[in-house]
Amino acid sequence: MDNTEDFLGSCDPNIPEEGPSAPPPGWLDDIHGYVGHKGGEDENPLYPPPPAYNPQPELNKNTVVPDVRVPTVSEDVARDALLKFVESKWRYSSKPARNLTFKELRPLTVYRYRLETYTETRTSGWQFEAYNGQPVDGPQYGISPPPWDIPLTLPQRYTNKVEKVRVPHSSFVKVCHKCNGFGRTRCIACHGRGQKRCSSCHGSGFRRKPGNHKRSSGKTRCSFCHGRGHKRCISCQGHGHKTCTVCHGCQNLLHFIQLTVTWKNNIADFIPDRQPDFPDKKFEQVTGDPFFIDENLLVYPLHGFPDQEICNISAKLINEHLNSFSSTSRILQQRQTIEMVPLTHAYYTYNGKDYSFFVYGLENKVFTAKYPSACSIL
Ligand SMILES: [Zn+2]
Ligand SMILES: [Zn+2]
Ligand SMILES: [Zn+2]
After folding, report:
1. Euclidean distance between CA atoms 351 and 93, whole angstroms
2. Residues with CB in 5 Å of ion ligand 1
3. Residue 232 pLDDT greater than 60, yes or no
4. Coiled-coil region(s) at which residues (predicted)?
């Protein structure tokens, strides 16, 4: 048994080697209205909605905003907010907050403009599943409806959702491209032999006895393969083949076009940067009072609002959203909101020194760059 290669035997020629895990280009049929599925780069083509599906903006249309008043906080509210803030910081003493003297509470006007555009996008791609005799809705039952003619129930407005549906009449059955319809593929690990040469004795069945280098008879039977020189292939359990990982042994696959519908609320926020001492990022954590909400299929730039920067940004963002979404998606609804975000700059003295802090948001959060430490008032 010197020639272990002989013993390892040859593979079953009937069982094919593994084919590609994805259907090769040209493998699948064409489905009317669903082009670009030939494999390769354009795997999931996006279908822009037909022009009639998207609203067309009216020219020179504007939206008028009512007047607003700037909210203020009282000294009690400012002090309570600071106390709550100080108590959440273990390094800070609440004593200054309790005993400080307010000099001025200066309310600042902060508007947050928000534009939301709720869109629907449709893309498609080939999918397959193992075929077990399930019904096949193929082209013989009719022409597949175009991507935008497949009816779907709209989710709740402004909620993000993805839905996948099977395109009607796009299904057909083909032999599995990986196993060529055998349901099994040749084991790669052992090349279909079911056995692998023992790596410990390199197939000889013997190993040199440790410490017996100088003696010619210093050989011992390989304990890993019990002297056989080969071992059963772990990968295929000695069968030489494995169940096909694509069809799971079913031999055939059911192919169909899957439509992926994505609903997304695209949000753009803007707050004019006018408070050099207050980090604008802080505004993201709080809510304001949405005193103006304008909701329609399409909204129009704000006009006549006292803050011209807000008017300008509304025109800019509305234009940007329209340009970036109407060519790829269907615009289902738009909403523009102006929020008054409370912001008060509170100036106070403590122990003869001047300090200040900010109270912001409807939540009355506090931001302070400097706070009198308890240690300084020994
Ligand atoms: Zn061995
Ligand atoms: Zn194997
Ligand atoms: Zn297969």
Report:
1. 14
2. 198, 200-201, 222, 224-225
3. yes
4. none
The residue whose two tokens read 């709740």 is 156
Query: How far apart are the CA of 15 and the centre of ligand 1, in A?
Result: 28
The most distant pair of C-alpha atoms in the chain lies apart, rounded to whole Å, by 105
CA of 196 to the centre of ligand 2 (A): 8
Count of C-beta atoms within a 10 Å radius of residue 13? 8
Mean pLDDT value across residues 70-74: 72
Token pair recorded at residue 191: 């090349």
Say if CB 34 and CB 126 are below 8 A apart: no
Among the residue ranges 188-192, 215-219, 224-228, 358-362, the one predicted with the least confidence is: 215-219
Ligand with the closest atom to the CA of 185: 3
User: Locate tokens 């998606």: which residue?
Assistant: 329
Can you read off the two tokens belonging to residue 101? 């003297």
| Residue 141 backbone phi and psi in degrees, to 5 | -95, 0
So what's the pLDDT on residue 137?
Answer: 95
The residue type of 232 is R
Question: Could you write out the DSSP letters of every residue in 308-334?
Answer: HHHHHHHHHHHHHHHHHHHTTSEEEEE
* Residue 278 Cα to ligand 2 middle (Å): 67
Contact 169, 143 (CB under 8 A): yes
| Bridge partner residues of 120 (DSSP) | 263, 330
Confidence label for 37 from pLDDT (cuts 50, 70 and 90): low
Provide the token pair at 196. Answer: 């692998």
At 338 the pLDDT is 92
Q: Is the pLDDT of residue 126 over 50?
A: yes
Mean pLDDT of 252-268: 95
Please give the sequence-ordered ranges of beta strands (E in DSSP) within the chain, or none if there are none. Answer: 46-47, 63-64, 101-108, 111-130, 161-166, 172-175, 184-186, 195-197, 206-208, 219-221, 230-232, 241-243, 252-270, 289-296, 302-303, 330-340, 343-350, 353-360, 365-367
> What 3-state DSSP class applies to 53?
helix
Cβ count near 236 (within 10 Å)? 22
Structure tokens at 194: 């079911």
Which ligand is nearest the CA of 235, by number? 2
Report which of 182, 180, 149, 152 is spatially closest to residue 164, judged by C-alpha positions.
152
